[in-house]
Specification:
288 residues, mainly alpha, 0% strand, globular
């Protein structure tokens, strides 16, 4: 069985001095990347291509996430910020080009088509999400569901590859892990003044807040002290922790139903960082 080394291989594309000095990149999609590699590597039909497929998909995801960080406005005047914005655009384009190059060099034209279709679906889902946000028609539950679908979409394109070995386990396990990942990230967004707007906590409060409280959330210059008060009032953090605990337990049951002991062991290690985080909370979670 090949060992997982995708982040190390990806460094030849991501660790350029110009990028590291002048801008920052999103986190590498470690959890979803490891999941894809584990499932492909356990499938004898596709194990030889598991590293190539996972690397290409991870670079596409990194490209999409990098472009997501680009400020919508191109009117940035400050030189340092403008350069950072430009490099994010170029870096995202570069990561996308590597995906095409790697797969075309390997003669994997069908895989290029498959991932390209998934990219289109990601962009469609994002447009739907942004439209609902702009129209204030988003609920907290919708936000989690749509975010999970957006983050999963590239990796879901491999579902037909997994069907002959893992039946329907791949899409279900992928979405479950991704949901835990999203909730995990939302917990930290709640603790960040800059990241709270548009988060799960934001939409949750908006659903239950009074008219005056909604005005506070929509104010051009948000009073952070008042926002913190609302977060506390509506138990945002505690509800997210509870959601994480619930979904981890559901994921445990799904993983335990898999036939492969090796895969179950690998999935435990993949989810270990989230489990360790959860274990530090008042209610210690059982391990997979």
């Amino acid at each position: 069985m090949n060992s997982y080394r995708i982040p190390e291989i990806a460094k030849q594309y991501t660790e350029y001095d110009m990028i590291q000095i002048h801008t920052d990149l999103p986190d590498f999609p470690e959890l979803r990347s490891r999941l894809l590699f584990a499932f492909l590597n356990g499938n004898t039909k596709h194990s030889e291509s598991s590293e190539l497929y996972t690397l290409a998909t991870s670079l596409v995801q990194l490209a999409l996430d990098t472009h997501e960080m680009v400020n919508a406005s191109n009117e940035i005047k400050e030189k340092k910020a403008a350069r950072s914005r430009q490099l994010k655009v170029l870096a995202g384009d570069y990561f996308s080009s590597r995906f095409y190059y790697l797969l075309s060099q390997a003669g994997q034209i069908d895989m290029i088509k498959q991932l390209s279709g998934a990219i289109c679906e990601v962009n469609r889902l994002k447009m739907n999400l942004y439209t609902k946000m702009k129209q204030l028609k988003m609920t907290a539950e919708d936000y989690i569901h749509q975010t999970v679908e957006i983050k999963s979409q590239l990796f879901l394109s491999f579902s037909e590859f997994m069907a002959d070995v893992y039946d329907q386990a791949w899409p279900d396990v992928l979405r479950s892990y991704t949901k835990c990942e999203v909730i995990f990230e939302e917990i930290f967004r709640t603790e960040s003044a800059t990241g709270f707007h548009g988060s799960w906590g934001f939409w949750h409060i908006l659903q239950h807040a009074t008219k005056e409280e909604r005005k506070q959330l929509h104010a051009e210059e948000t009073d952070q002290a008042k926002v913190r008060t609302l977060i506390h009032k509506y138990n945002v953090s505690s509800q997210l922790y509870q959601m994480l605990e619930t979904h981890i337990k559901q994921l445990q049951l799904k993983v335990q139903q898999l036939d492969s002991d090796k895969l179950i062991s690998e999935l435990f290690h993949i989810g270990e960082p989230i489990l360790r985080f959860s274990a530090k909370q008042p209610k210690v979670l059982e391990e997979i």
